[in-house]
Amino acid sequence: MNIAILLILAYLIGSIPTAVWVSKWVYGIDIREHGSGNAGATNTFRILGTKAGCGVMLGDMLKGFLAVKLSILSPFVWTSEPFVNLQIFLGLAAVVGHIFPIWAEFRGGKGIATLFGMILSIQPLVAVSLVAVFVMMLFLTRYVSLSSITASIAFPLLILFIFNEHEIGYRLFAISTAFLVVLTHHKNISRLISGNENKVPFFRKRRTRGDRD
Predict the structure, then answer these.
(1) Mean pLDDT over residues 94-110, rounded?
(2) DSSP 72
(3) I need a labelling partner for 23 at 20 to 30 A (CA). Which of 2, 40, 108, 146 fits?
(4) Boundaries of domain holding 122
């Protein structure tokens, strides 16, 4: 299949606004009008609780995973350098789709879960290691932003020094990912430094209209 078509399909998959659809169809609100205003798993956890947050996170991860799998429709030989590079570009197209979704007025989330799904599809062992880093930091601090930043910084370290990945494109991708995640979380970093960052209230049930204040 034509590479341009694959990239467009990957973007469209990434554009599926999981958080927006779940919040509107199930809870009757637009998640982007509450909390941080992001249409992502973190804001869903804060506003709608653990069940909705987990569902959105899994859905966003699946977008990145499936977008990368479109690479099997390409003419490239599996495990070849062009094939790996295509996987990276397909995954990034899905992340761009998540951040700027055509199905939701181009107002999406930060793309962390979709990015993770992409890594899971390309290199599962690295993804599992990043999950361990993320979960450990989240358990210790309950800050999703700090956990995401820590995992993103761990990504190139794992690629360069632990798994010793030789593919230049993958190395550059890992380094760029760490830089971009830190850059997109600059507001979170400021709130962390000032002590104003919100923690994720795990296992909190969403307040219903009948609950007392």
Answers:
(1) 94
(2) G
(3) 146
(4) 3-194
